[in-house]
Amino acid sequence: MFCVFVCRYNCEEVDFNLRVNSSGLLLCHFNNFSFMKKHIPLGGNKDFLVKPKLMEIENPVPIRPAQYVCAPDSEQTLLDAPAQFLLEKFLQSCSHRLFPMAVENRDNPVLSIDSYLSLSPEITVCYFSSRPHSTNLNHQGLVFSGLLLYLSDSFIVSGLLKKFRFLQGATLCVICQDRSSLRQTIVRLELEDEWQFRLWDEFQTANCSADRPLYFLTGRHN
Predict the structure, then answer these.
(1) Which option is the CATH number for 48-57+65-131+139-221: 3.40.50, 2.40.128, 1.10.3210, 1.10.1740?
(2) Which string of b and e fits 126-163 if b means at least 16 CB within 10 Å?
(3) pTM above 0.85, yes or no
(4) Which ranges of the chain have pLDDT less than 50?
């Protein structure tokens, strides 16, 4: 028997499980499974303290999740934390501001293609795999309140996105590893045909360029 255990910052790696399931592979669920943790330097709500990279005062004010992202090239205090960690915690805490039409709305979930990110318990996320011969739930008849694209690759094309229906005013969130990739993704997927963007809706995770922040842009469906 061959088992693979993957953990990022939560107890269950939902993204990995969805990718495995959509590929038609077997998932094993352990009803009774425990482990001992000696030390994990990164990850976990209690094991990682988000703090400024340069401590200027002895007792800094606690940093809120809304401060985990900032405008690109911002002069705000940079955080000593991995970009992925900051992004996930920001989305879990502030997703009601990014996807207001999806809050407590199970009939119009947020569509996430190829990558799953938790958007808090109040927002339902519908996962779809773009891979050839992948296994997906029947999404016919669904109208989505948002679209989440995280590090999209060549399997996601404009023709695929046009198969889905979205509410007027639905939110789009495109996440990329740098600003150049962000703009290239917008053009490659022809997102400006159906979505409206504003330059001031572009953000990055609040860490310095040496720590490779993630960038994202939000838009609204026409």
Answers:
(1) 3.40.50
(2) bbbbbeeeeeeeeeeeeebbbbbbbebeeebeeeebee
(3) no
(4) 1-11, 42-44, 46
